[in-house]
Sequence to fold (427 residues):
Amino acid sequence: MTTSYLIPAIERPFQASITLPGSKSIALRQLAIAAVTEGETRIRGVPPCDDADAMLDCVAKLGARVEQTGTEVVVVGPMNYDRDVVLNARMSGASTRLLLGLAALREGRTTIDGHSSLRARTNAPLLDVLAQHGCKVKSTEGCLPVTIQGPIHPPTQMHIDGSLSSQYVTALLVTAPLLAQTQGRLRHTQTIVIDGDLVSRPYIDITLNEMAKRGIQAHWVDEQTLEVTRGAYTPGSVQVEGDATAATYFAALATLHKSEVTLTNLGADSKQGDYGFLSIMEQLGATVTREADATLIRGPEQIQPLPVLDMTEMPDAALTLIALTPLLTGGGEITGLSSLHHKECDRLECPAKEFGGLGIEAHTTEDSIRIEPATALQAHQLNTYHDHRMAMAFSIIGSVSGTLTVDDKAVVDKTYPAYWEDYAKLC
Fold:
């Protein structure tokens, strides 16, 4: 049963401290790595959300031992490579791609399925690579449910289409250190060549950074080529920092409302690409104070006009900027959005449609949106399309109107169950 929620307006400037949920991107990568690591991995700061819960369940079903106490998870691997398993990725696209990579290592059949919204998202570029290199793959036109039986036997150099999602590349990267044997001969490196225009390179940089924490050398050879050194992941302890995409909502709200927010567990040492969203807030006039592991955002007295911005490198943060733009003088234009069509919902056309219900004029192309400034916000029930980020991003508009209702309050549970509680601290 779903429960709608009227987003309360923020009526005066606020001063707040927010401890963000742990980065989902980092936690999921570390859980996948733990599944193929011999020994105990202790991961602190795992976010209490549906996506992480789904990955934890799948890692356990793969045969690793999983114990959880609050936001600390202990995984004892490696996973089982032989028996047939059925996995439910729920609504987690990132988990799905990582699990497809793990499935390619296994001799047993791995069946992966999930929510209807996840079934609508293609995995074809990754499945094509697995099928080309020895895996038996059964799917519905590249979508879930998928059954894979390996193990994969790739050549020294693998090619992958990176134009739709960086998650396909990440799936191959995480498993690359284990792809050690080809026709009975060991090799020292695995090369991954990215075909097409790569979207979201910062997410691949996150992957490289998390692999390095676990003792694996992997690096960019050039703009399209990655090289991974063969080896085993080391067990040990890992701390997951705050989620930079979640930070964008509070950064935007502080900027908009001439307010101040301190993010207590995310700082300048972060490798998350969406941390760059704070530089956009600075362009709007905000003051950002960055420390090693904390960040302070202070909104300006007068917001500056939004320049035309290319969000190719920050696709998840793009929706936050889309929701903020009609509240700025002059509106604005945002480009580099082609990958948004392939998220939990179409994050370009769906927000444009919801703008119509709010009385906001917007025009889209295949990879851009032009948004006119809002003159009078109409009362509206937001269709989130089962997408957590639609609810959180559009809370920025609700903070001004006080008349925006979310169709499903619990949709944020996918990555940030405490979002509405933390939002309430600003009111």
